[in-house]
């Protein structure tokens, strides 16, 4: 490189960040939001934070497989490495064209993430990332490479090193350093290494073949076999500990033809449709599932209207109650857990907070029921898409080997919303009606977020894989997909997505996530220099010609915009509801009454009709048509709710397309005639009746022994049981008592009488700091730039300034005089300032006026006018000319 380029090359990550423009900094902060929590004071602090272990680990975990492979290759390359060296490690001696074409994008990604800095002639992996990815005996490299010759021979005696050099056919040297250099030069020379290995015994080459792709370590006995002795004598295997040998990195790379990885994966696995359905069939199937989903949630909450199962002491639903719920909904237990968790996440059910805590519907449930069906579905779908509650974990064990129960703690997984959104995005990228195989979706997700460390069983420790499987099954249950393909309303749920025919669809976002750093194309690439002035913008680098392939979708991974913001999601949910509404069956206002005391609803019923009929009759069977059965208990339930016999006759006559059968009319009249003849109140409880013969009959009945009734008066019986128990006991005996208040009025028991206090839906657990919006990004970058200006602006020499870049120290008189002079000249000053909390900072200000012990100035660090008490200014110093 020329002297100018050498002088301009950044010497640290902070200098590399300082050379970026605002768009590139915004891309970094958007992709790594933990870097601005809180906002750094300057770019040096930003660089320090970007190199911390926690932040680097988080950034590495969000790299796709090829970008991670590129970082792993840099970790075993020289420090710094050239672009050609990196290309050789990734593409091998054969310079694999697809790998070479994808490498610029991977390097640009690492640069944008501040994991790599420097020009193409001096690529540097940040120190923490190198420590995490470089090979060591305790932490083997994912590349399977071992230590270099220099590292492996660091503890070896000089005499032994000279023996190896001589046996390898090299001239002896006067010191170990030059001997190691000579041996390294041999192992990195392809021609000489080929000649050396040409004379190796076949079984020695077999040993190298077993170690070449890792792990590079092997065990030997004190008296190695001849095939091992041949390798040890020539340094092709080097001892690292008693009984342990290692294959040097340079030897492995020669045997691998220069590749750091056995199988580089520059291209994301394609998600292709396994089955194709007509879009109309997919939408109709999904709409049917959506209707079933609404009916299932309503049935669940209607069953818990008067108080559901008890809350466990540790929180959640017991296994027995989950089984009962599954039986009531006629689904499996995992599916029942999904519906229970969905209703809870949507805020439709919660614990009532009473002493005997139970689950019940919330007031939000009543509001939800009043909405149109499509809007009710949209709320459930939006909740599912954004919730971190993970029903698939129910029945498993947590880290402390405690059982995970439905509605209990420990079910939040912060990655769930991202995985759900990504799975649906992959489905949306297929042609309409296309249903992919589960394995192709999982393979794509593993490429986008590979597991670091040893690969485990796919569904054992790969949480993203399990979340993806659950997403596909839950989306089908909810009606987001139909027959495995994304429906039209499910597609709308993801937000507006511009479509390219035959290609992957990508949702448009106001803040682009493409790398702002120039794409490296070789050692003299555009990534060496960036303009320094914050108002300048780097020109958009052109893409390398090697990336211009006929099928760009296979060379470039789909963009990952991530979940929508709450406002964007609300708009998308409304659009999905509009698309779903015409596909849902129209609610009916009639039923068909039959002579066997049943009523058939040939479709979904309108809300008032469904509510009243649900009280008056019991559901006998469900399906395309719902069958209700009228029983004495169901009719009594309607009378308890405040209906009269004439009301029930009029209701059935109005809503039945067939005449009211005579047996049903007789049933209603018979139950109504006996209803309320007995009155139950609190004594603990009492029964009163004008017919003392009826009370005699109750006392004589053996079934009343458990109630322990006794006569207080000819028309009154009393018991120690509570009124509810007495009511149930008498009803079990075949009577139809009515509860009454302390004033003697009949109490009306409505089905929806029990509600929890107003409860908010559980908040999703965030996956780290939230992504910053455009306003926060702009403010953060402005503050970082201003703080960096204050910390790096040259100052005029002053005896009062403390050496080493500390805050300036001047006396009060000097501070006041310098401030007043700056007001007259309009010059900017560098000040040290200590706030009310005792935190010290340095600032660049332009004083406007000094009065009353305060200085009002334009603060370049904060980019606004501020007023500072003079007694908190530690000192002032003039800036060098032409710095502000």
Automatic annotation (TrEMBL):
Region (Disordered): 134-155, 489-571
Domain Helicase XPB/Ssl2 N-terminal: 591-713
WYL domain location: 814-876
Keywords for this protein: ATP-binding, Helicase, Hydrolase, Nucleotide-binding
GO MF entries: helicase activity
Coiled coil: none
Position of the signal peptide: none
Top-level taxon: Bacteria
PROSITE patterns for the chain: WYL
Protein name per Swiss-Prot or TrEMBL: Helicase-associated domain-containing protein
Lineage: Bacteria, Bacillati, Actinomycetota, Actinomycetes, Kitasatosporales
């Amino acid at each position: 490189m020329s002297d100018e380029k050498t002088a301009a090359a950044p010497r640290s990550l902070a200098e590399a960040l300082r050379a970026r423009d605002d768009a590139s900094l915004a891309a970094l902060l958007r992709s790594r939001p933990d870097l601005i929590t809180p906002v750094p004071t300057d770019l040096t602090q930003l660089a320090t934070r970007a190199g911390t272990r926690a932040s680097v680990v988080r950034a590495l975990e969000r790299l796709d497989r090829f970008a991670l492979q590129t970082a792993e290759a840099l970790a075993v390359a020289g420090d710094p490495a050239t672009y050609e060296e990196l290309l050789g490690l990734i593409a091998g001696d054969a310079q694999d064209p697809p790998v070479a074409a994808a490498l610029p994008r991977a390097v640009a990604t690492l640069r944008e993430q501040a994991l790599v800095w420097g020009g193409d002639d001096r690529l540097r992996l940040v120190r923490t990332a190198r420590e995490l990815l470089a090979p060591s005996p305790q932490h083997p490299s994912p590349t399977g490479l071992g230590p270099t010759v220099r590292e492996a021979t660091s503890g070896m005696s000089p005499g032994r090193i000279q023996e190896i050099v001589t046996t390898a056919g090299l001239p002896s040297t006067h010191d170990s350093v030059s001997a190691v250099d000579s041996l390294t030069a041999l192992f990195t020379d392809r021609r000489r290494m080929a000649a050396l290995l040409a004379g190796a015994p076949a079984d020695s080459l077999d040993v190298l073949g077993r170690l070449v792709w890792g792990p590079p370590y092997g065990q030997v006995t004190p008296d190695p076999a001849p095939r091992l002795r041949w390798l040890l004598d020539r340094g092709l295997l080097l001892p690292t500990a008693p009984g342990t040998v290692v294959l040097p990195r340079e030897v492995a790379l020669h045997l691998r033809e220069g590749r750091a990885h056995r199988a580089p994966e520059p291209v994301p696995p394609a998600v292709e449709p396994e089955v194709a359905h007509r879009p109309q069939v997919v939408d109709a199937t999904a709409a049917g599932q959506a209707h079933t989903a609404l009916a299932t949630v309503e049935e669940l909450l209607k069953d818990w209207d008067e108080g559901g199962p008890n809350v466990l002491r540790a929180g959640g639903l017991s296994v027995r109650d989950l089984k009962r719920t599954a039986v009531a909904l006629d689904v499996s237990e995992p599916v029942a857990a999904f519906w229970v968790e969905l209703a809870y996440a949507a805020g439709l059910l919660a614990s009532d907070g009473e002493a005997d805590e139970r689950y019940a519907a919330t007031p939000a449930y009543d509001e939800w029921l009043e909405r149109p069906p499509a809007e009710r579905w949209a709320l459930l779908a939006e909740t599912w898409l954004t919730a971190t509650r993970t029903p698939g974990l129910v029945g498993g064990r947590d880290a402390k080997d405690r059982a995970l129960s439905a509605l209990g703690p420990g079910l939040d997984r912060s990655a769930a919303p991202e995985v759900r959104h990504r799975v649906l995005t992959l489905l949306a990228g297929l042609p309409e009606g296309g249903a992919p195989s589960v394995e192709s979706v999982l393979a794509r997700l593993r490429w986008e977020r590979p597991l670091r460390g040893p690969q485990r069983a796919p569904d054992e420790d790969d949480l993203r894989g399990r979340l993806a499987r659950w997403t596909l099954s839950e989306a089908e249950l909810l009606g987001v997909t139909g027959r495995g393909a994304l429906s039209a309303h499910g597609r709308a749920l993801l937000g507006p997505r511009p479509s390219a025919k035959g290609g992957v669809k990508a949702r448009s976002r106001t803040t682009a996530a493409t790398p702002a750093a120039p794409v490296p194309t070789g050692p003299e690439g555009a990534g060496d220099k960036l303009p320094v002035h914050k108002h300048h913008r780097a020109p958009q680098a052109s893409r390398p010609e090697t990336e211009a392939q006929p099928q760009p979708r296979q060379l470039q991974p789909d963009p990952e915009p991530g979940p929508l913001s709450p406002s964007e999601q609300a708009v998308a949910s409304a659009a999905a509801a509009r698309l779903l509404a015409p596909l849902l069956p129209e609610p009916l206002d009639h039923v068909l009454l039959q002579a066997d005391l049943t009523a058939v609803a040939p479709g979904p019923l309108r809300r008032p009709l469904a509510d009243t009929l649900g009280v008056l009759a019991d559901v006998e069977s469900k399906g395309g048509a719902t069958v209700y059965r009228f029983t004495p208990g169901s009719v009594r339930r309607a009378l308890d709710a405040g209906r009269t016999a004439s009301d029930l006759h009029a209701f059935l006559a109005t809503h039945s397309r067939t005449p009211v059968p005579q047996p049903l009319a007789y049933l209603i009249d018979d139950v109504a005639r006996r209803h309320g003849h007995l009155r139950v109140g609190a004594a603990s409880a009492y029964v009163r009746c004008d017919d003392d013969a009826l009370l005699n009959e109750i006392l004589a009945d053996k079934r009343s022994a458990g109630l322990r009734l006794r006569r207080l008066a000819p028309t009154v019986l009393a018991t120690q049981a509570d009124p509810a128990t007495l009511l149930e006991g008498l009803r079990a005996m075949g009577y139809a008592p009515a509860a009454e208040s302390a004033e003697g009025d009949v109490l009306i028991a409505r089905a929806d009488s029990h509600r929890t206090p107003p409860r908010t839906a559980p908040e999703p657990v965030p996956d780290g700091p939230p992504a910053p919006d455009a306003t926060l990004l702009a403010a953060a970058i402005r503050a970082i730039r201003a703080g960096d200006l204050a910390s790096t602006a040259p100052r005029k020499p002053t005896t009062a300034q403390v050496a080493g870049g500390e805050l300036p120290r001047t006396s009060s008189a000097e501070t006041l005089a310098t401030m007043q002079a700056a007001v007259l000249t309009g010059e900017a000053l560098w000040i040290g300032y200590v706030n009310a909390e005792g935190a010290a900072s340095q600032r660049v200000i332009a004083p406007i006026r000094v009065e009353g012990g305060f200085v009002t100035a334009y603060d370049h660090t904060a980019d606004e006018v501020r007023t500072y008490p003079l007694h908190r200014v530690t000192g002032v110093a003039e800036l060098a000319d032409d710095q502000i």
